[in-house]
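Hi, here's the filled form for the chain we discussed.

Project: internal
Contact: R.S.
Residues: 204
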Amino acid sequence: MKKKVSSLILSLVLTFTFMSLYSLVFAQAPSLTIESPKSGEVMNKDEALVRFKVENFAITDFRRNPQPVAGQGHLHFWIDEANPTAQNAIKHISKEPYLLTKLEPKGHTLIVELVGNDSASLKPPVKKTVQFTTTGTPKKEGVTQVTTLPTPTKTAGNQTAVGIIVVIVVLVIGAVVGGTVFYQRKLANGKKTEAKKTPDQEEE
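And the returned structure, exactly as it came back:
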């Protein structure tokens, strides 16, 4: 009876552990979609409302949450930027649309990227690009003001965090299996010892 109970407990522990491991390793990756402007769209104005859709990723304020945390961060926008970096990006900390203003009447290239709290690219990077045209004449030159951010520190990324979790789970499984096997062997040896006792020994 004890052997059946211990086997049942081991099965439940292994099942729960593997399900947790599966959900961590195969969890859906962050995704980004630019809903507007559309690729090739022509707008008779000097502004563009950037609408986007983010999934499996929490948008946070990097000013309040500067430390990198897997699965959260903010967005970087670049408009007509030949060398996009964290320093020249437009930082966006909301899922609400963003209005680009004072655009010159010409073709434009918009780049949108999901980044971590420290403004470092995700691993793998999650970035989208769209090209569109505006024909309106801006009243003043320039684009929406860009804020700056200190040089981001390198992080191990989501993959490193998952790797550490996998190692911990494997160690836990090994400990549980080893302990269960030891207990079962000890129980079996005890039964063998009792079986070897002679009637005379039992009377004594």
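Let me know if anything looks off before we file it.
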